[in-house]
Design a protein that fits this description.
By secondary structure, this protein is mostly helical. The protein has one domain: Cytochrome Bc1 Complex, Chain C, CATH 1.20.810.10. It contains twelve helices and no strands.
Length: 277
């Protein structure tokens, strides 16, 4: 008996949703050991100690990294599948919480990249703070993330306390639960372990190393390249904010596929800009 494409699509949506939740759990749990080994006053040194001296430290750090990367990737797949619907079947409030959660995930990933304390993380933080400081309204938020005495302390607090709590709350409001079904977090754990066994995590760049060019996380490279192309800070911030604004509009429009088309065009353009070396 043939299964209809609609049923197949619904199955893919369900799998993506559950796997996203499973990977979120793996990412949270795998970050427990790095949290206790990390010291904002000696960010780079504490990360190196975790990686090379603490028993199983390298394993948990890599597991946290790959499960988080997979979490973001599967989340984006989940969003794409939901955007493929011809009609909006989710409540507006639930969709808005989902959009806020997506923003929270990206902020979590970005703050984690900064906290490794190497040259690339420090450079990404400086670019982000510059964008915030030169953009109206966002400039008022700079004191929330920038510490004049201890650079990594506020990023650390946001990464391990406020953003995870925000994401848990958004997830609860979106789907009414936090814990995934057992098979999905087991699958998420298995895929993450497989990745760390066959793929090398990007190397840390020591503060004293000499490098020609520093790159931020993959989802931030488009913003960095837009700055290099001569756009000012508020223009770059506006371009980066476009997809989140479109996502917020999605449940309020009569023809949501137009929003999907606009998001697709933005994604193509941002990807092209991100690939510029």
């Amino acid at each position: 008996m043939n299964t209809s494409p609609i049923r197949h699509t619904a199955t893919y949506r369900r799998i993506a949703a559950h796997l996203t939740l499973g990977l979120f759990l793996v990412s949270l749990l795998s970050g427990l050991l790095p949290v206790f080994a990390y010291h904002p006053s000696a960010a780079y040194d504490s990360v190196q100690k975790l990686t090379f001296l603490i028993p199983y430290g390298a394993f948990f750090r890599q597991l946290h990294y790959f499960s988080s990367e997979l979490f973001l990737f599967v989340l984006l797949v989940h969003v794409v599948l939901e955007l493929g619907r011809r009609v909006v079947t989710i409540s507006r409030h639930s969709w808005m919480y989902a959009t806020g959660g997506t923003v929270g995930v990206i902020l979590l990933m970005f703050s984690g990249f900064i906290l490794k304390g190497d040259q690339s993380g420090s450079a990404a933080a400086q670019v982000a703070l510059h964008l915030m400081g030169q953009t109206p309204l966002l400039d008022r938020l700079v004191p929330l993330v920038k510490d004049t005495e201890l650079f990594y302390s506020k990023f650390f607090v946001w990464h391990v306390i406020f953003l995870p709590l925000l994401l848990v709350g958004m997830t609860w409001k979106h789907i009414g639960k936090i814990l995934p079904r057992r098979e999905y977090w087991v699958v998420g754990l298995g895929i993450s372990v497989l990745l760390l066994l066959i793929v090398a995590m990007p190397e840390d760049i020591a503060p004293t190393a000499t490098v020609e060019h520093l790159r931020g996380p993959w989802f931030f490279r488009g913003a960095e390249n837009l700055l290099q192309l001569g756009l000012n800070s508020w223009q770059v911030t506006t371009i980066v904010a476009i997809p989140f604004g479109l996502l917020l509009l999605y449940p309020f429009v009569q023809k949501p596929l137009r929003v999907t088309a606009a998001l697709a065009l933005w994604l193509i353009g941002y990807t092209v800009v991100s690939l510029i070396v």
